[in-house]
Design brief:
The structure holds two protein chains of two kinds. By secondary structure, chain A is of the alpha+beta class. Helix content of chain A is about 35%, strand content about 25%. Chain A contains eight helices and 14 strands. Chain A has helices at about 45-60, 70-90, 140-145, 150-155, 195, 200-210, 215-230, 285-305; strands spanning about 1-10, 20-25, 30-35, 100-110, 110-115, 120-125, 130-135, 165-170, 175, 180, 190, 235-245, 255, 265-270. In chain A, strands 2, 3, 4, 5, 8, 9, 10 and 14 form an eight-stranded antiparallel sheet that branches. A six-stranded antiparallel sheet of chain A has the order 7-6-11-12-1-13. In chain A, a hairpin with a 3-residue loop joins strand 2 and strand 3. In chain A, helix 6 packs antiparallel against helix 7. Chain B is about 35% helix and about 15% strand. The N and C termini of chain B lie far apart (about 50 Å). Chain B is globular and about 60 Å long. In chain B, strand 5 (about 55) and strand 6 (about 65) form a beta hairpin. By secondary structure, chain B is α+β, with helices and mostly antiparallel strands. In chain B, strands 1-2-3-4-8-7 form a six-stranded antiparallel sheet, covered by helices on one side. Chain B has a three-stranded antiparallel sheet with strand order 9-10-11. In chain B, helix 5 (about 215-230) crosses helix 8 (about 260-270) and helix 8 packs antiparallel against helix 9 (about 280-290). Chain B folds into two domains: about 15-115, Phosphorylase Kinase, domain 1, CATH 3.30.200.20; about 115-315, Orthogonal Bundle (Transferase(Phosphotransferase), domain 1), CATH 1.10.510. The interface of A and B includes residues 264, 282, 283, 298 and 302 of A.
């Protein structure tokens, strides 16, 4: 597998970030997940954290290096994540189980499967257009589907955040599964929370991301969403993944899993507190060259004072 | 993951303009080689190769780094650069000299002046229980000149021990291995925990690293002096905190060495950082004081000790 991946989460104008995001991959399987803890309820961020952590851990157990029966895996782990949140609430004597949306996408053998509950979205961008998109589990989406309201009115509708399915809470979630979708080279999968898509038009995903290096373009998309979110901007979280041809020349910082050991797993999960990307970034080749030339300069400079010379 | 052993570059290997002669030492963080430059002069080359992150097996040259260790490997490289940066600026006869720094084989190398001689550790092994006071005062006073230079550059050595103090053939000491001189090594990189040597590390190096300071290197210096007399390392400081079994030098070698030297050693080995000499200068002053002033100065009484400390403290200012 070869892919480029980017994830970022921002608190927006909110004091804390209830969004969680992670990806994990083995040599032959890739998992992406985003969850948006529901602020109107108690401990939304705990629900999101439990959900993401549970899904990633289930993946780490199941992917050896392929996950058997993708749809079953997604069904089982989202269902169990829901139960884990309820167990947590029971253990802590919470009056009500916290809630979170979720969208999880599993890719292996160049085929993507995804599942979601709530209004966190997955977009599949192909050849400059949106090829697939999840449907929110919201009243508003139902009204849209029934033709009771148009897109423009929906964007400003006061109840656009009301959703009828999520993990946690007292009701069983209604999880929606995709059919298997084969991926082609240069497809882009983007999963995000409503803080991102709610402040953007669908076309913005295309105009920003299509045909670009997502590592450079995704932050720009986030900037625009955050700008348009203004003073009440919700938490914003996005994960974008650019799928490459297995045989293509590796371009830039693409991840190739070819050389991974069969039992190797790499995971990136954003914690409660995280620095903005770039700050935590490692040493690039240019940094190394610069450090070395700096040191050699210092050696030359100071060796003039060498008492032994 | 079980600790792995990395194979060194083979003798005769041409590394840029240097020819590898043999491996000198192997640490968890690096391998040190003896090599020769174009003019056939010997140099020591330190290769960055943390064995928990990078693997070189058999006859391959470029170490393999697993995808998930790439970030940590690069992070450790930063620390290796820090060591290079600090050493490049230190120009002192009692501190090892860096000559060159380069990148090859997917990792980085630091070329240092090669000194002929042996480590103090070696010397202690060969002369167990026979080490003269004059020798200790001489070696440590000069070694502390180098340490003073280190501290003057706002660095801590943090791994002072007999095996990192090198004695040239003319008897002058050189401070080696600044691999631990990286206080910034973050706690969130468990693969690259700073390495220290039990017995020589002060208690604050084990748990409250925010209290590290010149006094921490001073504890290690005291422990190294203690090891000169005892022939082996003193009890680990973290165990001393639980149950202090370390016999004070003043008791253990009473009558064999001057009480003043023994007092200095115990002073350095105080578990409370604030009660140790607070600067290298204060310690140096105490170490040379006997040769300058009368023996009568050696304080046996509490008052005398207070005076000695006050002197050392005012000497600092």
């Amino acid at each position: 597998m070869k892919f480029t991946i980017y994830q970022e989460s921002r608190p927006g104008a909110r004091p804390n970030n209830q969004d969680r995001v992670a990806y994990s991959y083995t040599r032959e399987s890739l998992l992406l997940v985003v969850a948006d803890g529901m602020g109107g309820h108690l401990h939304g961020e705990i629900a999101a954290q439990i959900a993401v952590q549970y899904v990633v851990e289930a993946f780490q157990r199941a992917a050896r290096p392929l996950v058997q029966d993708e749809a079953m895996f997604l069904s089982r782990c989202l269902g169990n994540a829901h139960a884990a949140i309820q167990d947590y609430a029971f253990d802590k004597n919470l009056p009500e189980a916290p809630r979170t949306t979720i969208v999880a996408c599993l890719i292996q053998k160049s085929v993507a499967f995804w599942a979601h509950a709530g209004d966190s979205r997955l977009y599949l961008l192909r050849r400059g257009r949106i090829a697939q998109q999840t449907k929110d589990h919201s009243r508003l989406q139902m009204m849209l589907d029934q033709g009771l309201i148009d897109e423009e009115a929906a964007a400003r509708h006061p109840a656009r955040n009301r959703i009828y399915s999520c993990l946690g809470g007292s009701h069983s979630p209604q999880i929606e599964f995709s059919s298997p979708v084969p991926l082609f080279a240069d497809d882009i999968v983007a999963i995000c929370t409503d803080g991102v898509w709610g402040n953007l038009a669908s076309e913005d995903f295309n105009t920003h991301l299509a045909g670009t290096n997502i590592l450079d373009s995704t932050p720009g998309l986030m900037d625009q969403a955050e700008r348009q979110g203004g003073a009440s901007c919700d938490n914003l979280t996005i994960l974008t993944m650019h799928w490459h041809d297995d045989y293509a020349e590796a371009q830039g910082p693409a991840i190739s899993t070819e050389a991974m050991p069969a039992d190797g797993i790499t995971t990136r999960m954003e914690g409660f507190a995280r620095p903005r990307p770039g700050e935590s970034g490692g040493l690039t080749d240019a940094d190394i060259e610069q450090a070395i030339s700096e040191i050699n300069l210092a050696i030359q400079k100071y060796s003039r004072f060498d008492p032994g010379k | 993951m079980p600790p792995q052993v990395n194979s060194p570059l083979p003798p005769g290997f041409q590394l840029e303009q240097y020819r590898i002669e043999q491996q000198l030492s192997l640490g968890g963080f690096s391998i040190v080689y003896l090599a020769t430059d174009q003019e056939d002069k010997p140099v020591a080359i330190k290769e960055y190769l943390p064995n928990s992150l990078a693997l070189r097996s058999g006859d391959q040259i470029e170490p393999q780094i697993a995808e998930e260790h790439q970030a940590a490997f690069r992070y450790g490289m930063k620390c290796f650069f820090e060591e290079g940066r600090s050493l490049a600026r230190l120009m002192h006869p009692n501190v090892v000299r860096v000559l060159n720094f380069f990148r090859a084989n997917g990792t980085v190398y630091m070329v240092m002046q090669f000194e002929r001689g042996r480590t103090l550790q070696d010397y202690i092994q060969r002369n167990k229980g026979q080490i003269k006071e004059r020798f200790i005062r001489g070696v440590f006073t000069r070694m502390l000149n180098g340490l003073r230079e280190v501290h003057a550059h706002k660095l801590l050595h943090l791994d002072i021990k007999p095996s990192n103090i090198y004695l040239r053939n003319d008897g002058t000491p050189v401070l080696l291995d600044f691999g631990a001189a990286r206080q910034t090594l973050a706690q969130d990189q468990p693969m690259l925990k700073p390495m220290y040597t039990p017995g020589f590390a002060p208690p604050e190096q084990f748990n409250d690293r925010e209290h590290l300071g010149p006094w921490s290197d001073i504890y290690s210096t005291g422990a190294a002096m203690y090891a000169c007399l005892a022939g082996n390392a003193p009890q680990r400081s973290d165990e001393r905190l639980k149950k202090d079994l370390l016999e004070p030098a003043t008791k253990r070698w009473a009558g064999q060495y001057s009480p003043q030297l023994l007092e200095i050693i115990d002073w350095c080995l105080d578990l409370d950082p604030l009660r140790r000499p607070q600067s290298v200068y204060a310690l140096q002053k105490a170490l040379v004081s006997r040769t300058r002033t009368a023996v009568a100065e050696v304080p046996g009484t509490l008052l005398g000790r207070v005076v000695l400390r006050l002197r050392a403290l005012t000497g600092k200012a």
